[in-house]
User: Fold this.
Amino acid sequence: MNITADVINDLLPSYFSGDASPDTRTLVEDYFRQNPGFERQARHAMQSLQGLGQAATESPDERDEKTALQRAKGLLRRQKILLALASTFTLNVLTLGFSFEIGGGHVRVHWLTLPGQREAIAIIFLLAVVSWVFYFRVSRRVRTRVLG
Assistant:
């Protein structure tokens, strides 16, 4: 039977990991004795792969992960609060800005009927606008930093 370099290449991972059967180990070692240049290349390639594997498995520092998680939670909490505020202020502007008068077979809509209501609605409207601006800014940070 003719054993080619491709067959040996297929066997190398199990040979270098120590999972190969004794017959497979013998076959690979015989091929290495017949082709010392191939053995050097195979061992060099395996050392390079092992170095990459060790570099890839190093976990980041736990404190950095914890800090990143806390920042993400803080941003998401801030986003929720701003959405609630912006929605509340917007609904207040819509509901307080006008009133209904029902009677005599007619329904009348009065816009800003109470004294001082115009100023209160203007302030609430500004609060709504500011809340929406901050909400969208935080949402952008969540998309880029948390979900990134």
About this structure: Strands lie at 98-103, 106-111. DSSP finds five helices and two strands in the chain.
